[in-house]
């Protein structure tokens, strides 16, 4: 059921808030308070749409919209220049607008358990992004532009449909945690060993048959999981390297 729109952008946000019975402590019914709003926590509120007028709320730094029923988000969210965290997990999203790249201060983006098949190439413009959570979607590939995320520390793309990683993923030099479990990855990029800050690597249930010989150069690694078939094919040098890692799980 569509919300009836009134004239001003404030009226439209208020009509939306009333329609979904959102508390006034969460969504103020006053323009000045709306414009000062820095955090918006709307977890599990059965929301089916977000008004495009949200783009007017320029003070927002944190938006939590996980566990709703959203099938799309308005491109106007890209106008929120101060936004640092955007939580959209557990919705029904099939697409992320390219305008998300305008969120120059965004540090954390949560998109787990949606219906995404891809993420926009413009993701590489989010220069401050430190955490990108894409778990349990239908993503077939990651754009090469992800290599531009120089501050990315956490990338979780477990339980998707990935067949490979971008060859230039090693450019994500700040990466500390990489979760690749339950995909269809056959090989790791040749330059994978350049991820010298990597501390956690999860990659069980893929189609990997072996690891690149130079993976032993990942000296910072503290946690790893891998399939038994890979473990049985490790070289002696790789076995010694695995013995030096404190948290090892063979599945």
Characterise this structure:
The chain has 251 residues and is of the alpha/beta class. The chain has 4 helices and 10 strands. It has helices spanning 9-19, 31-36, 228-231, 236-243, and strands at 39-41, 62-64, 85-87, 108-110, 131-133, 154-156, 177-179, 200-202, 223-226, 247-250. The chain has a 10-stranded parallel β-sheet with strand order 1-2-3-4-5-6-7-8-9-10. The protein is elongated. It starts with 8 loop residues before the first helix and ends with a strand. The model has no long low-confidence stretch (mean pLDDT 95).
Q: What key phrases describe this protein's structure?
A:
12% helix, ten-stranded parallel β-sheet, 251 residues, 4 helices, alpha/beta
Outline:
12% of the residues lie in helices and 13% in strands.
What would you call the structural class? alpha/beta
Strand segment tally:
10
Order of neighbouring strands in the sheet with most strands = 1-2-3-4-5-6-7-8-9-10
Q: Helix fraction?
A: 10-25%
Query: Which geometry do the CA atoms define?
Result: elongated
Helix and strand pattern: HHEEEEEEEEEHHE
Biggest sheet record = 10 strands, parallel
Distance between the amino and carboxyl termini = 47 Å
Question: What are the SSEs and their pairings?
Answer:
Layout: H1 9-19, H2 31-36, E1 39-41, E2 62-64, E3 85-87, E4 108-110, E5 131-133, E6 154-156, E7 177-179, E8 200-202, E9 223-226, H3 228-231, H4 236-243, E10 247-250
Parallel strand pairs: 1-2, 2-3, 3-4, 4-5, 5-6, 6-7, 7-8, 8-9, 9-10
């Amino acid at each position: 059921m569509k919300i009836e729109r009134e004239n001003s952008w404030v009226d439209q946000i208020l009509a939306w808030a009333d329609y979904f019975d959102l508390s006034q402590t969460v969504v103020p019914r006053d323009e000045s308070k709306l414009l000062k709003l820095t955090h918006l926590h709307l977890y599990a509120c059965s929301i089916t749409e977000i008004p495009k007028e949200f783009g007017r709320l320029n003070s927002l730094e944190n938006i939590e919209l996980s566990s709703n029923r959203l099938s799309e988000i308005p491109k106007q969210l890209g106008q929120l220049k101060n936004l640092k965290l955007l939580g959209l997990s557990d919705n029904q999203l099939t697409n992320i607008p390219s305008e998300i790249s305008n969120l120059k201060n965004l540090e954390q983006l949560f998109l787990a358990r949606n219906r995404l098949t891809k993420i926009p190439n413009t993701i590489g413009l989010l220069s401050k992004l430190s955490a990108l959570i894409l778990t349990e979607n239908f993503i077939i590939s990651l754009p090469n532009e992800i290599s531009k995320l120089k501050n990315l520390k956490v990338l979780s793309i477990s339980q998707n449909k990935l067949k490979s990683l971008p060859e230039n993923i090693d450019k994500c030099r700040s990466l500390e945690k990489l979760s690749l479990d339950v995909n269809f990855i056959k090989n790791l990029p040749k330059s994978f060993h350049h991820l010298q800050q990597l501390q956690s690597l999860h990659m069980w249930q893929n189609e990997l048959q072996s690891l690149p010989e130079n993976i032993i150069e990942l000296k910072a690694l503290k946690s790893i999981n891998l399939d038994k078939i890979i473990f049985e094919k490790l070289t002696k040098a790789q076995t010694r390297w695995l013995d030096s890692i404190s948290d090892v799980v063979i599945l």
